[in-house]
Amino acid sequence: MTGTLRSRHFGLDKRCRLFRLKRSGAAVVEFAIVAPLFFLLIFGMIEYGRMVMVQQVITNASREGARRAVLDGATTAEVVSAVNGFLDSAAVDSSGAQVTLSPDPPENAGFGGAVSVTVRIPFAKVSWLPSPMYLGATTLEAKTTMRRETVQ
Q: Prior bond to 36 cis, omega within 30?
């Protein structure tokens, strides 16, 4: 009985071996078809993940700039320096950032007046990819408005 099972097993093994020899290049062809889509998906996730991270960083940078701008005696240079310092500490290149204050200088707002700090940065300046595929022309922007804290 064991001899019959062995002969059936060897016969099946021989057929499978022949089938595998005929399919030796199938995995390479399948990989060549799937790999570009896989890499596009991976690079897209990297790019959108970086965009979300940088958007959070510039939102916090504009908030830090607005906190500095509402203080008594704050100057435009101090606010821009605070924003750029926050961007640099978060590993975002501040050389491409544009910081706008309204009103400029912030002391023109008066007691309780609104001071806005807007930070804009082109995504192409902060992308981890050499040439962004999906978001290359996008400009990220964050705006924070706070009330001025001056003495009447």
A: no
Residues 21-32: tens digit of each pLDDT: 666 677 788 899
Strands across the sheet containing 139-147? 98-102, 114-122, 139-147
Using CB atoms within 10 A of its CB, is residue 76 exposed (0-12), middle (13-18) or buried (19+)? Answer: middle
| pLDDT reported for residue 54 | 93
DSSP string, 103-143: SSSGGGG-TT-EEEEEEEEEHHHH-SSSS-SSSTT-EEEEE
Cis peptide bond prior to 132, omega within 30° of 0: no
| φ/ψ (deg, to 5) at 120 | -120, 140
Residue with tokens 């500095």: 68
